[in-house]
Automatic annotation (TrEMBL):
<dbReference type="InterPro" id="IPR002347">
    <property type="entry name" value="SDR_fam"/>
</dbReference>
<feature type="region of interest" description="Disordered">
    <location>
        <begin position="1"/>
        <end position="37"/>
    </location>
</feature>
<dbReference type="InterPro" id="IPR057326">
    <property type="entry name" value="KR_dom"/>
</dbReference>
<feature type="compositionally biased region" description="Polar residues">
    <location>
        <begin position="1"/>
        <end position="16"/>
    </location>
</feature>
<keyword id="KW-0560">Oxidoreductase</keyword>
<dbReference type="Pfam" id="PF13561">
    <property type="entry name" value="adh_short_C2"/>
</dbReference>
<dbReference type="InterPro" id="IPR020904">
    <property type="entry name" value="Sc_DH/Rdtase_CS"/>
</dbReference>
<dbReference type="InterPro" id="IPR036291">
    <property type="entry name" value="NAD(P)-bd_dom_sf"/>
</dbReference>
<feature type="domain" description="Ketoreductase">
    <location>
        <begin position="43"/>
        <end position="228"/>
    </location>
</feature>
<protein>
    <submittedName>
        <fullName>SDR family oxidoreductase</fullName>
    </submittedName>
</protein>
<comment type="similarity">
    <text>Belongs to the short-chain dehydrogenases/reductases (SDR) family.</text>
</comment>
Amino acid sequence: MAQQEGRQPAQHQDTQPGREGAMTPRPQATRPEYRGSGKLRDKVCLITGGDSGIGRATAVLFAREGGRIGFVYLEEDDDAEETKRLVEAEGQPCIAIRGDITGRDTCRQAVERIVGEHGRIDVLVNNAAEQHPQQSFEDITPEQLERTFRTNIFGYFHMAQAALPHMKEGAVIVNTTSVTAYKGNAMLIDYASTKGAIVAFTRSLSQHLAGRGIRVNAVAPGPIWTPLIPSTFPADKVAEFGTDVPMGRPGQPEEVATCFVFLASGDSSYMTGQVLHPNGGTVVNG
């Protein structure tokens, strides 16, 4: 069951991306009460940012639904190995690929690795992201701006372009956006801007691919307890993280992963260009 406490222990990690293994408590990713029913049986699934947080939870539930899993991660080898172990414990194969999705060649090579093993891609989850808060808008450097856009939206373009030649009718793309795309964030202006771009990307690509029978949707999480949080904010902010939403607590990755299962499976067969909002009760009308 998802943790119900409102506050997390104060903590901070000095480098991004954060490490899930260093978090207290650990994010919940396996949702033990969830029973798979073959919704993704033999589907080949590629997930970016799959080593931890939402990506890990999605990989685990996809595997429980019968999916064959591949995921890309930046450099968090220990976290990636744990995700691989959890997926394989579900009885499914798993390929972990180390690389920076800001590079087009990395995306192409990742796709080639999965296609070389499985022959196709049925589900692409664009999930990797980074954020760097700034108290003042003027303090967002050109380097930060470019890096955030390269990770959070350019990487989605690169991965989709690399994967699409290997995706047939019935395939699915699911993008991770954020509640910040709809309500903004005073200290994450560049990050929120990329998340808004992902919404427009999702809607536009869905229209472009509808005639090919490929659906494109997105998930816009609210405050979710992932390594991005302690590696982004000071310890006192981490302790209060997520307590300002109506449900009074941060969500767990496993509470978001079910949205990805729904959008990746035939349960959502009449949905494309849409966004789901697991955000603890924030109404965004989007």
